[in-house]
Design brief:
The protein is an alpha+beta fold. Helices cover about 15% and strands about 30% of the residues. Among the domains are: about 420-515, Cytochrome Bc1 Complex, Chain D, domain 2 (Orthogonal Bundle), CATH 1.10.760.10; about 530-630, Cytochrome c-like domain (Cytochrome Bc1 Complex, Chain D, domain 2).
């Protein structure tokens, strides 16, 4: 075992210093495998690996421990669904024009390509094998596909960025986890939600809100009996100034448990320890007997193995004690009880960093960036995004779980940009591993939808998280322009947000990664072009004088203005003119995220026409203008 680990680490080291060969495409760009989804064959001999960077499926033989076949795909693979007999593999391919590629596993050929929505991911087959459900991340809906007829049956609207889904064993309920919060960032509660879809009526039956501060929802698993749904996410403490990290002051990392019997949140437990964060929880999976639930920690390179019966018993004990305390308080007419001191949850469990002691094991994995897992019997296979590798963990070898490193093939040399991406997602460079840069900037440097009270412009005046896309091309940095360049923001972020001291080459690498980010085409485009409404809106954009400040290819003049939006401590403050490129992805809007929609920016929150002359526009013209802006 140790020998295999040593060989793996030597391989990774050689790749980092450039002594292994480089895999390139025809244009000369480095191709990383970047595994991000797994599914096993029914006989458990094969493991299918979605290699997003290489745009292919790797077929991994679990007996030989080698990749035996690769299947090229037209776009980045983001998820799998395998038929019960293993004959067909459905692969979601993320692109503005998303596709589901149907692979015949006997021949390893693509036999069908089914059109779906923007950013397709997380395909789920109904238990009877008749329907396929696909999360269209940037279309904000779910495609329902009749497999036999190979056609769409419905598109079900859900909330912001449907990222992952799971279905109950009876096929009646589809749970869809939304990656980011929707609505304004200054609301009383700002949190990601789980939409519960009735598969018969094809409507959202209920939306279950996670605790306040829940964001970066990445994993969801339905228990084998359908009784519980497990959801992994960040639980941000955004309501306090960012003065420290101890005891999860800024970001904690959580697993929420939904009770499927009444479709309500049972409770939320923290995956961190008191002085050791478990940053960026990602994939979730249950063993077939339902005894264990496993969670990968993409930021710390770990796997949590949680004893489910012990977990549920402990939650019930806490809830029983909380109920008795509430009853006592009510009898004595005392303040206290539910939510009086800790949170909106009566148990206080979401604030208890020691809750999982004794019922969870944290296993250090061999590679970096674990984002996917599959459980075959007692064996857990974890795919590691940044080291193009897998780790095998045997659940039978507890409590000292052994790890076995598995290679997916020859690893290319790590470029500066790739190393920067790894560091951006790596919580091991943060004090006590509570968070990574990606904790507040998920989805390749974008936004978490929250307001944070950073200390760079005073205290008590929180600002909405900005996307890092184009940050190096649109100085100054930060909403109030307090950093003259993005380079300065990166370095102060390492120092004052990660509370870390790092070598300059780390900051340089992160700079290069952020510079390499490319905008995605807007879902508001029609066949890649402006809709009729957006074309009308382009003319209104000029008429309303929006183009005075939002000019040029990046739609910014790089200046600061007082547009009348400031309130409280920020009253009469000047704000940096943001780029409108990919603004469709960065809601909510304005410096404090009070505007949930672009229409609110143009109307409700535009006093005195300081933010464009819009007061004289009709409702239809406002709609056209918003359509144009959101098409950028």
């Amino acid at each position: 075992m140790q020998f295999m680990k040593d060989i793996f680490l030597i391989t990774v080291f050689l790749s980092l210093i450039g002594l292994t060969s480089i895999t390139t495409n025809c244009a000369g760009a480095v191709n990383y495998f970047s595994p991000q989804a797994l599914v096993s064959s029914e006989d458990e001999n094969l493991l299918y690996v979605a290699e997003g960077g290489a745009k292919q499926v790797a077929v991994f033989n679990t007996q030989s421990g080698k990749v035996i076949k690769t299947i090229a795909l037209p776009a980045e693979p983001t998820g799998f669904a395998l038929t019960e007999d293993g004959a067909y593999l459905y692969v979601t391919c993320a692109a503005p024009k998303g596709r589901v590629c149907v692979i015949e596993t006997d021949t390893n050929r693509i036999i069908k390509r089914i059109p779906v929505g923007h950013g397709a991911r997380s395909p789920v087959l109904s238990p009877d094998g008749k329907m396929l459900y696909v999360c269209n991340r940037f279309s904000n809906d779910v495609s329902v596909i009749n497999i036999k007829e190979n056609k769409h049956v419905a598109r079900i609207k859900v909330l912001r960025e449907p990222f992952v889904a799971g279905i109950t064993p009876d096929g009646k309920w589809l749970y869809v986890g939304n990656h980011l919060p929707d609505g304004p960032a200054n609301a009383e509660s700002v949190a990601s939600k789980v939409c519960v879809i009735n598969t018969k009526t094809m409507d959202v039956d209920v939306s279950i809100s996670l605790p306040n501060g829940s964001t970066g929802l990445c994993g969801l698993a339905v228990s084998p009996d359908g009784r519980y749904v497990y959801v992994s996410h960040i639980l941000a403490r955004y309501t306090v100034p960012t003065t420290q990290l101890e005891r999860g002051w800024m970001n904690t990392n959580a697993l929420s448990i939904i009770d499927g019997s009444d479709k309500k949140l049972l409770d939320t437990v923290l995956l961190d320890d008191v002085d050791n964060g478990a940053a960026n929880p990602w994939a979730v999976c249950c063993t077939r007997d339902g005894k264990y639930v496993c969670v990968t920690h993409a930021g710390t390179g770990e796997l949590s193995i949680i004893d489910v019966p012990a977990l549920l018993d402990k939650i019930r004990d806490y809830q029983s004690s909380a109920k008795k305390a509430q009853e006592r308080a009510e009898r004595q007419d005392e303040p206290g009880g539910y939510g009086s001191t800790l949170s909106a949850f009566p148990t206080g469990i979401p604030n208890e960093l020691s809750f999982l002691y004794g019922i969870r094991h944290r296993v250090k994995l061999c590679g970096k960036g674990p984002r996917a897992l599959a459980i075959i019997g007692s064996k857990v296979y974890v795919a590691e995004y940044f080291t193009d590798s897998m780790t095998l963990v045997d659940l039978n070898k507890r409590p000292r779980y052994e790890t076995v490193a598995l290679s997916l093939g020859r690893t290319p040399r790590m470029t500066v940009e790739r190393r920067g991406e790894m560091l951006f997602n790596d919580a091991s460079i943060c004090f006590q591993k509570w968070q990574s840069c990606a904790s507040c900037h998920p989805g390749q440097g974008r936004t978490d939808g929250l307001n944070w009270d950073l200390l760079n412009d005073g205290i008590g005046n929180p600002k909405n998280t900005k996307s890092m896309l184009l940050a190096h091309k649109t100085p100054p940095a930060m909403i109030t322009g307090v950093r003259d360049r993005a380079e300065a923001a990166v370095r102060t972020g390492i120092k004052h947000i990660l509370f870390s001291v790092r070598p300059e080459e780390d900051a340089v690498a992160i700079d290069e990664y952020l510079k390499s980010l490319k905008p995605l085409p807007s879902p508001y485009l029609v066949k890649g072009k402006l809709s009729k409404s957006a074309k009308r809106g382009r003319k209104i954009f000029e008429k309303a004088e929006c183009a005075r400040c939002h000019k040029g290819p990046l739609y910014t003049d790089l200046q600061k203005y007082n547009v009348g939006a400031g309130e409280g401590m920020d009253k009469d403050r000047e704000f940096d003119t943001p780029s409108l490129v990919e603004i469709w992805r960065t809601a909510p809007y304005l410096y404090d995220g009070r505007a949930a929609t672009m229409k609110e920016v143009l109307t409700k929150y535009n006093p005195g026409d300081k933010h464009g002359v819009t007061s004289n526009l009709s409702e239809k013209e406002i709609g056209d203008l918003a359509e144009f802006v959101l098409s950028r």
